Structures are given as structure tokens and as C-alpha cells.
């Protein structure tokens, strides 16, 4: 039986256990998208988790949705991320930078160019967006032209190459949580009538073209992909979790020999079993509502190879040690999730610091 403390090879990495840090937006980058020194400290503090998947990082100006999220497409971005990667490596961890294009989940006030957001179709998500002036309704996005789709594919290619230049061990493509790829997957957000809309094959085409370009650029063993079947975020509605689409996507991604597939899933295990059977490489499973005592259950039941964790990692930089020793966890400070500065970011004490 598999155990959470067994080692595992993922792409070109050898991990000492079956835990990983899930990507989580922390909204602390500089205005130009550079991650700061606190970001380097934040990730270095959590290096014992082995594989650290960074916060969502835009591959271009058009990819940004929220205030103070980082980018990875300029020389300044690369230099700043190199500081993060170096400090993670010095503490014996691995860093994957998550590439996140938010699509329609944006507001012009939050971007440097203040343009209309790009999306598969000109359909607003009917939700609000926090801006420097408070909450505002997200406006109708611009339906992407074929040229804009082609340009976006090349932006992902460039961002992936930039991440490797910055010293990252790989990248994860964010195909989940109501953002651009998820918008292409969902019928209620994608009403195109060309080769990127309608059939399942067409709705996953953009994702496969991006992954193919990135694999060509940096190698398959440095690429992961994240999905969230049935997740109702950003106005996305997926009937019956769009199951047929995700199984088709999984099988198509198999042919590209990626390092891993990362699934966010809180629903019935029967569909997770189907994904598990279809996927031939390493499978990361993130269960947002998972109880601490169940953290290794998916691995023991062969539903996952790795359990990715989120908020426990935020509040406990030494989560691995605490889990091994059965020590109580720090409480999460919800007021510090996106507040900026040290509070709720780099000020959580380790066991050694408490002593």
C-alpha cells in the first residue's frame, strides 16, 4: 500500500514524500508584476513541502485579472523570480511557476493597459472584481480572434521559457477555477462557432495547442496541467461536471507525456477513479474540504500519487514536520490572505521558533 511518506519521481524531480504545495494567489507583487523579497522568503520557508507550485502568474499583460499578481514575461520578472527559485533551491525544494491567464475574469482597472479582457466569447461572468476603488462588476470581454488565440499561445510559450530562465524547475498551466482554459471548456462561456467552439474536440483545442507549444519549448518533464471539473467559479457552469470533455482531455494530454496532472476535486470518487485510470503519469489531487486525518487517504486508495495542500501550507511553513510529529497546526489568519506585507504571509511561526 502506498504511503504519504514514500518518495516519488515527478518529471526530473525526486520528491521525498507525497505532499505538495498547491498554487494560491497571495497578491503581493510589485505594480509591474515583479515578485518581491518577501515572496522569496515565503516560498523558501515552505521548501520542506518538496514541490511548491507558485501563485498564478500571468504570461502577458492580457493575462492579468487581479491587483498585484506576478508576471513572468519581462526581463525584470525573470530576475525577480530567480531570487525566489534560488532561495527555494537553497532550502532543498523545487519550484513550479503556475501560468495563469484569467481570460474574462478581469477588470480594465487592474491591468497596465486598461483594455477590455479577452475570452472565448463576449459573455460576462456576472460576478464582481475587486479593484483599487473597491468591488466593480466585470464588464463584457472581447471575443478572441484567431490571431489573438495564436498570439496567446506564443505568450504561454514565451512565459514557460522565461520561467526556466528564472531557474524554476517547471511550470503548471492553470486550466481550472473559471479562468481562460476553463472558459473554453464550458458551453456557457464558450459559444464560438469556429474550430475552438461547439464540440468537445474544439473546446479543448486551445488547451492542447498551448500545452504542445510549451512542451516543445521546455520539455514535457517540466510541465504540469491543472483542471477542476465541475467547479462553479467565475460564472462557469459545467453540466454533469463536463465529464466526457475531461476524460477526452486527459487522454489527449497523455500523449504529450507531461510531468503530472493536477485535479481539484471535491465530488464523488467514481469520476476521480475514471481520471486516475485514464491518466498514465503522476496525478496530484487537491481536495479543498479534506480533513487533516484524511490527507493520505487518496494515496492509500490509489486515487492519487500526491496530495496537494493549500491553506495548511500558508499557516504552517513547517507543515511536514508538524504532520509527522502530530503537532497542532497554526491557525490561519484570514485577514492576511491578500492584505500585503508580512502579516499572514511570512510571520507564521515554526515549531523551532515557538520553542
From TrEMBL:
Pfam family, one: Oxidored_FMN
Highest taxon of source: Bacteria
Provenance organism: Paenibacillus nuruki
Alphabetic keyword roster: Oxidoreductase
EC number(s) recorded for this UniProt protein: 1.-.-.-
SUPFAM superfamilies hit by this protein: FMN-linked oxidoreductases
Name the record gives this protein: Putative 12-oxophytodienoate reductase
Cofactor(s) annotated in UniProt: FMN
Coiled-coil stretches: none
Family label: Belongs to the NADH:flavin oxidoreductase/NADH oxidase family.
GO cellular component: cytosol
Cited InterPro entries: Aldolase_TIM (IPR013785), OxRdtase_FMN_N (IPR001155), Oye-like (IPR045247)
Gene3D superfamilies for the chain: Aldolase class I
Sequence ranges assigned to domain NADH:flavin oxidoreductase/NADH oxidase N-terminal in this UniProt record: 6-329
Molecular function per GO: FMN binding; oxidoreductase activity, acting on the CH-CH group of donors, NAD or NADP as acceptor
